[in-house]
Amino acid sequence: MMESAEQPLRITPEMLLSRRVDFERRMRRAPPFTIGIIVLLTAIFAGEVARGALGSRAAITAAGALEVRAVVAGEYWRLVSATLLHGGVEHLVGNAVALFILGMVCEHAFGRAQYLILYVGSGVAGSLLSLFTSAGPSVGASGAIFGLQAAAIVLFRRHRDRLLLRDRRIGVVLLVWAIYSIGAGIVTPYIDNGAHVGGAVGGALIARGLHPVVLEPMPPERAAWVRRWLWAVWALLAYTAAGWRFR
Predict the structure, then answer these.
(1) pLDDT band for position 119 (cuts 50, 70, 90)
(2) CB neighbour list of residue 209: distance below 8 Å, 6 or more residues apart
(3) Averaged over 142-149, what is the pLDDT?
(4) What domain count does the chain have?
(5) Cα distance between residue 214 and residue 155, in whole Å
(6) Residue 138: which of 67, 201, 69 has the closest Cα?
(7) Furthest C-alpha separation in the chain
(8) CATH number of the domain bearing residue 129
């Protein structure tokens, strides 16, 4: 009597799991570059408080907030300086929490150099759209942070077959933060939802050109591209520091 033919083995997603990269493996729980940005934002906010920059629209504008008339007059450095200022303690704390989480993700996924390009580029994109949606003044790092969030979404969507994200609670936390930020932009002075949208669009576009080092080392030609853009970012930051200091 002949044995029945062996049934083909059905491949399940669980069986393929070992071929995916565990995204959270070796991810730092205290990302140093991100923590450095948070410390910088906190120090700048302390300076705002000490100088009374939160007392009026004129004061926050003088401190470096984004304002259409000032930018049209040639103070382009405000496109960056505004992303370093905040309109209150709640504004700063909310952004710091989201930045810590998203910075942990993006710093691990792209490395520090690409992360800096993404952060600054998203912040500038948010400021540019803000110019078309609000006369100002507006301040806050949330445009850059929305860019990090959009970049994380692009990363996990494009590489969903290669990346394994074990802790999905991060998505809930970021959704709550996004809703909070948009709500704050409606009811809080100096916060502009146009910057949120612009930052998200900018971050999504920039992320499409970034190399996920969490999956594989960066090839030499891509590393050269990153270095060129990094020099441009440092030049922009130097220009911002000079314009802000000698305004």
Answers:
(1) very high
(2) none
(3) 91
(4) 1
(5) 11
(6) 67
(7) 95
(8) 1.20.1540.10
Domain that holds residue 240: 26-245
| Residue 21 belongs to some domain of the structure | no
Residue 83 has pLDDT above 50, yes or no: yes
1: in domain: no
With respect to residue 19, please indicate whether it lies within any of the assigned structural domains: no
pLDDT for res 1? 45
d(CA 33, CA 22): 22
Q: Which pLDDT score, from 0 to 100, does residue 124 have?
A: 94
Each residue's pLDDT tens digit, 150-180:
898 888 888 877 776 665 666 666 667 667 6
Q: What is the DSSP string of 198-233?
A: HHHHHHHHHHTT---TTTSPPPHHHHHHHHHHHHHH
pLDDT in tens, 19-62: 677 666 777 788 899 999 999 999 999 999 988 888 888 888 98
- Residues marked as catalytic: 142, 196
Residue 124 is assigned to a structural domain of this protein? yes
DSSP secondary structure of 16-32: TGGGSEETTTT--SS-H
Query: CA nearest 244: which of 28, 55, 106, 47?
Result: 47
The SS3 assignment for 35 reads helix
Token pair of 72 as six digits:
């049209």
